């Protein structure tokens, strides 16, 4: 049976979703000498056995292809002290990749993906599945290594602005 669905106005949907608080994350990857990082709020835990997370990335940005081809990513949880880093990777600024990565100190754990050294938590993942869903790709990653720092205020995004908790 096919349902007769009325399309939701995208602007109305985005306005409503702006009231939804999301934890600000930096997702990073590398392929050879090329690196990419993107500020996102669309990420979550899927399972603890095996440890699995998912991220959602816009598939219309061709620069995101590296995430679909590298086979690895790191999900870095940002704290309140990372607001300028979040802006650098959000696309609000016109910085080069090297300028963006200069906002933080990065290292690698297990997969070779860039991990933010002072992230509140960092999940180093190998891609296990990619599903296309409308304008985005959902990337599932098995967590190969994890690291977390001392508890600090979290960086949240709500009502089109940053907040802390």
Automatic annotation (TrEMBL):
Residues 17-164 form the Flavin reductase like domain. Keywords: Monooxygenase, Oxidoreductase. GO terms for molecular function: FMN binding; monooxygenase activity; riboflavin reductase (NADPH) activity. Pfam families: Flavin_Reduct. It comes from the Bacteria. InterPro entries: Flavin_Rdtase-like_dom, NADH-dep_flavin_reductase, Split_barrel_FMN-bd. This is Putative 4-hydroxyphenylacetate 3-monooxygenase. It comes from Rhizobium freirei PRF 81. The lineage of its organism: Bacteria, Pseudomonadati, Pseudomonadota, Alphaproteobacteria, Hyphomicrobiales.
